[in-house]
Amino acid sequence: MAKGAPSVYSIAAHRGFADALAAGLLPRYRDDELGLARLTLILPSSRAIRAVTEAFVRISGGGLLLPRMVAAGDLDLDEALGPLLDPLGDGAGIPPAVDPTFRWLKLAELIREEEGAAAPQGAALLRLARQYAQVIDRLLVEDIGPEELLQDRVIEIVGDLADHWKASTRRFARIHVKWLDVLLARGEVDAAGRRNRLFEHAAERWKAQPPVHAVVAAGVTSAAPALARLLRTIADLPDGAVVLPDLDLSMERDVWSELGRAGVGDGPTDPPFAPGDAVTHPQYHLKLLLNRMGIAREEVHPWHRAGMGKGPPARSHAISALFLPPQASKGWAILPADKRRLSGVSIMQAATPEEEAQAVALLVRRALAEPEKRVAVVTPDRGLARRIVAHLGRWNIAADDSAGRPLSQTAAGRVVLQLAEVIAQDAAPVALMALLGHPLVSAGDARNRWLRNVRLLEAEMRGPRTVAGLAGYADAAAKIGSARPEFAEWWQFVSDLIAPALEAPDDLPLADRLDQIAQLAEALCGEGVWAREDGRALSAFIEDLRLQARDVGTVLAPDDLVAVLRDAMEDVSVRPPYGGHPRVSIYGLLESRMNRADLVICAGLNEGTWPAAPSPDPVLPPPVLRALGVPGADFRIGLSAHDLAAAMGAPEVVLSRAARDLSGPAIPSRFLLRAQALLGDGLLPDYTDTHTVALARALDDAEPAPPYPQPRPMPDAEQRKVRISATALDRLRSDPYQFYAQQILRLRKLDALDAEPTAQWQGTLAHAILERWHNEEGTLDELAAQELEAMGAHPLVRTLWRPRLLAALEWVRQTLEADDEREVVAVEARGDWTRRGITIHGRVDRIDRMADGSLAIVDYKTGKPPSGSEVANGYALQLGTLGLIARESEFRTEGSSVRGIAETFEYWSLGRNEKSETGFGYIETPILTGRKRSGVLPEEFLPTTLAYLDQAIDAWILGSEPFTAKLNPDQPGYTDYDQLMRLSEWMGRSAGEAGA
Which among 163, 417, 607, 851 counts the fewest CB atoms within 10 Å? Predict the structure, then answer.
């Protein structure tokens, strides 16, 4: 029999929901036998069950039989659909729920069939299908079927919309109808629809036959119509009650009215949400729930107990004032100081997220010094949460982030994603090396031997890739394997393992592709890939996805595989196992609900983070959703505000933000700005915590490091006696440190894996083509095609550079054919010459015999040649040094040698030239001739070069001059050794300071 008035209660924010709930339920239902165990407690989620369980343990002080707790599923619109409500008896013929993964994949197929060639492809199609599924759920939560899209008020709105919104709305309606046909054929329903039916079934059964024992619904705030009707039924039960969190019972009636319509229209055809509704207010969704329950706020009673972690009661009045709607906020102007106070609340602003994480960790560390004090850090920013966990680790405080990590960011998840990248990129070096070096691959005793082989292969594969696929590794593997037989065996194992996946057809079904990936993962990692919490989550993820993909028949191209898997894994949270510090908790907003601690730190209070930036629905236009009665995107801001209001009820609260985020200056959260405005300029300094931030900044401060001096290494006499190449002489004079690092220390810059072709690579390619052309191995076109084809992994570079390369090479051919007075006598010839016991060596691109018998030294350049002033000042001596070698020694090629006096020195640049017939190519000389204003006179060129060479030998090779870094900083040079010389630490200081 129903009672006279519904039993609805509210637990104020300062009382601490879970502890206050347990404190009130325990004495009411506990007896010497099974009183509490007979209670059915309906909670919003499994996380809430854990929070209430812990609260019962704290309150009881000993063992007890807990009530039966049922998770109704957290139905807030910003939460993924939770577990279904227990039917509490037979299912009344309610069909089973369709698997969400099957729905996602099947919707993608329906969209493809509907749109045909216009449908998105690959990952874009599956993202669109996910958005369709989310819209269907939003409609189902509000008890809205596809037929309601045909209502007059909706049709009128659609007619006034932009064409793309019209098309999107009609497409969604058609897809939704087709999806309902699929469900009918399978005998299933959507999970959200089934949940509604379960709610209705429970409500009808309890109305007809009230349960024998008590039923209490606590902490449920979703205003879904079906759930609201069930809550009303529970409130009317003889021994039933509904307990709401943080409903503001002290709010003035006119302020409550200012929140808006909240689901109650003036007429039967009015939409439930008016444009002026204060949907961003933390009490709006509770007003919506009460309206749908048919209960006035005046019928709600305050809960009679407080929890162990209760805050000061006065805080609730300040929190209520803090979130007043716009019109009511005008009352702040006359609000007395005692009503503004947020006692126990402090505001902390750091400069960067890193500094904020450090400061928050300090607050946690300080609080743990107090016995039994519990600390909770609440933030929606998972990156900030991970930083805080890392900083706490410096004090050996193991803090678990209860929100977990996306599966894609775990070790096991990364194995699968890296395998997908290897398949998609045809075993590109970066992807393959990342996979083979993954921590889970070959874990155990053989790990060191495995990594040794990986590093050998990686070192050999650096530079531009020449051939795609595993064939690109053949030469490197053969080279290493000839010296290390164990490597050859290892590479055979790896290639045999990966080859079948690379050779699979592009139209391989997704289920078969996942079978391949799972087998590869286990072959590389053993059973360790499925171990621990991330491995178990990965196993369930792959098993579900391949089962449903096989049912639907999904086919996915390799190029789309990585994006699809990553998107799907982002929705799978891997939560850490229990075992962290018992008094420290790190929560996301969903996890923080109903949890309480003595100190609550609300971190990441920046706009776009808390609250998150509202994202409009990409499928249905906002006016249509509003007409249907679906809360808009701003509704989630109100939920975030309610989360903050609940957190601010703790005894101690810190509101924290960083002035900058990863992208630049950040805007403070609107909630934080309201708190600062409420306090006013007079009170705000008293509530600002600057000490902790200053301590965080000082924590890592060390004594200022002395200025790093300009490097001046002084090797001994024996170390100095090294060979000098024609190109190294320039570096020795302009930047002796580079010569020292390269020639004496033998340090070389490593190319990146799968490196993009650089200007140096282009020069090497041009030299190779010209060498073969001079040796009459083919035409320029044929040779260029052969050399370019060798870079099979870089088709874009081939396409872009081939036309200008051929034009420049054609200029070389035309120029040589037009000059009958010179003969090419040597190409890519090498020579050396001993000067005062030091070997000078070099390679000349081309030597020509002129009509008078003298030699011409030619150097090909793909860029701009050195200027005449650089040559005159002794910083571009390559041609002169090569001329000295030709005069004093000889240049050798296969079967012949060239020796003589060079009088012509030329740079043949392949750069752009508007005066050239081909548009490319020109000749410059360092000799001061014609109208040139800089350079060296012809008769002085070789003597000047020899003088500079002797000067360099006397100073650095045979002398004791230090190899000073950037001795002549104005001269252009390579940057390969700038980090080694710590250039940025001393460059720009005066000579005295740099040398200190």
Answer: 163
905/941 Cα distance (integer angstroms): 10
Instruction: Please say whether the beta carbons of 79 and 220 come within 8 A.
Output: no
957 DSSP assignment: I
**Where are the extended beta strands (E) located within 588-722?**
599-602, 652-658, 660-661, 664-665
The answer to whether residues 922 and 867 touch, using CB atoms and an 8 Å cutoff, is no
202 Cβ contact partners less than 8 Å away, ≥ 6 residues apart: 85, 87, 88, 230, 233
CA distance 101 to 510: 13
Between CA 671 and CA 791 the distance in angstroms is: 57
Tell me how far apart the alpha carbons of residues 5 and 299 are, in angstroms, rounded to a whole number.
8
pLDDT digits (tens, 9 = 90+) for 884-922: 999 999 999 887 899 999 999 999 999 899 888 899 999
857, 858, 863, 867: CA torsion to nearest 10: 30
Q: Which amino acid is at 638?
A: G
pLDDT tens, position by position, 788-833: 777 665 666 677 778 888 899 999 999 998 888 889 999 999 999 9
C-alpha Rg value of the chain to the nearest Å: 38
229 close to 243: Cβ distance less than 8 angstroms = no
User: How far apart are the C-alpha atoms of 880 and 869, rounded to whole Å?
Assistant: 14
For residue 75 the two structure tokens come to 């139905």
- DSSP conformation class of 445: T
Q: Helix, strand, coil proportions of the chain in percent (round to 5)?
A: 50, 15, 35
In terms of Cα–Cα distance, which of 280, 271, 276, 288 is closest to 157?
Answer: 271
Q: Copy the structure tokens of residue 255.
A: 């302020």
User: Whole-structure pTM over 0.90, yes or no?
Assistant: no
Q: Supply 42's token pair.
A: 């309906």
Question: Residue 412 corresponds to which amino acid?
Answer: A
SS3 assignment for 164-203:
HHHHHHHHHHHHHHHHHHHHHHHCCECHHHHHHHHHHHHH
pLDDT-based confidence at residue 590 (cuts at 50, 70, 90) = confident
Task: Return the closest-CA partner of residue 113 out of 192, 171, 197, 198.
Answer: 171
H, E, C per residue of 953-993: HHHHHCCCCCCCCCCCCCCCCCCCCCCCCCHHHHCCCCHHH
- Rounded CA-CA distance 854/658 in Å is 73
Cα(249)–Cα(10) distance, rounded to whole angstroms? 8
Q: Which of 674-683, 858-867, 938-947 is predicted least confidently?
A: 674-683
Average pLDDT, the chain: 87
